[in-house]
Write a structure and sequence with these properties.
Two copies of one chain form a homodimer. With 168 residues, the first copy, chain A, is mainly α. Chain A contains seven helices and two strands; from the N terminus they run ααααββααα. Chain A has a two-stranded antiparallel ribbon with strand order 1-2. In chain A, a hairpin with an 8-residue loop joins strand 1 and strand 2. Chains A and B meet through helix 1, helix 5, helix 6 and helix 7 of A and helix 1, helix 5, helix 6 and helix 7 of B. Chain A binds a DNA duplex (30 and 30 nucleotides) through helix 4.
Chain lengths: 168, 168
DNA sequence: TTTTATTTTCAGTAAGTTTTGAAAATTCAA
DNA sequence: TTGAATTTTCAAAACTTACTGAAAATAAAA
């Protein structure tokens, strides 16, 4: 397969992958493009490579910046802004985990704390069923939270090299 | 907080949570409703509780069945079909991981295998950058695949009780 | 059978999300 | 300053996905 085709396939499937995970397609595609690009790119480069409008590039690149997945690069003597992506995939994963944990898992756990204290007789079966479900989700969620904290602090080698041996 | 209100909040935030993860809101809401319900429910019950149409309930309940997250329950002497959800949250997580791994991670890894073999001189910097990125994603992906396999086979206690002590 | 209850399907519509493109704002150089 | 290059914004349009509701199919009862 030729590089041009391979790039296109990578970008398009990274985009499709993203949509399954609640990430908008263009954001994922821009990210993919920056990941495989040896040098930083301008917004015009991205418009051209991905055939999308200026506004679209601009909005999505700024989302990538807030996630920490891309950064602005100023090239001396150049007027335009350039952008590049974090290339260390383990760092990328950690950034995403950190952000989603903060945005989704933590608020969910807070809510579950409140819901667990629903008023009423715990022997009533609808109350019992509700509280049991909420508690068990909370328990697992809290554990997931801790595990992800550890992961976010860890080196890639922890994951790739060390972890699995112990659990075979 | 009253049970009725607590239920509504749970259902609505479970639905919102789902949409962030590529799961349609109604499917997540039906799932939430079944999770907290002490007894199996009919499609009419769900229509009423969630204020949605018959067709919508029917399509989404059937998706839940194919994911293994809900099951049909036949009550003797009753004409209507009833549905209930798997209440063991650890099992729920494992079912979801299993399905998404199959649908998303595995095809992605297959694609990366192909893309890694792009033709051309590996010293060319655009080729090198592409291959390096693809390889490092593949490496991490393969490891994630194995880790998830182990997780899918594991008991909840492995996760909640045993795992973390070792990595503190 | 025929009738009645229940479930399933799916075309059309509605709702939600993403994208465009042109205008406004900003930045830099002359 | 002024003007050109560049970035940002956002209302409207395009696209995508989800939902409705009525009709068709199926299953159970009479």
């Amino acid at each position: 397969m030729k590089l041009t085709e391979a790039k296109q396939q990578f970008i398009s499937s990274w985009g499709a992958f993203g949509t399954n995970w609640g990430i908008n397609r263009t954001m994922a595609q821009i990210h993919a493009l920056l990941l495989i690009s040896p040098d930083p790119l301008t917004q015009d480069d991205m418009m051209e490579e991905l055939n999308i409008s200026r506004g679209n590039v601009n909005m999505n690149i700024r989302d990538l910046l807030t996630w920490g997945l891309a950064e602005r690069v100023i090239l001396p003597g150049e007027r335009k802004e350039y952008f590049s992506a974090e290339k260390d995939i383990w760092k990328v994963v950690k950034l995403i985990v950190k952000e989603r944990k903060k945005r989704e898992l933590e608020p969910m756990l807070q809510l579950l704390d409140k819901l667990e204290e629903v008023e009423g007789d715990k022997r009533d079966k609808s109350i019992k069923s509700f509280v049991d479900t909420v508690s068990s989700i909370k328990k697992l969620g809290k554990q997931a939270d801790k595990t992800l904290d550890t992961m976010v602090k860890a080196e890639e080698s922890w994951f790739v090299g060390g972890l699995m041996k112990l659990f075979k």
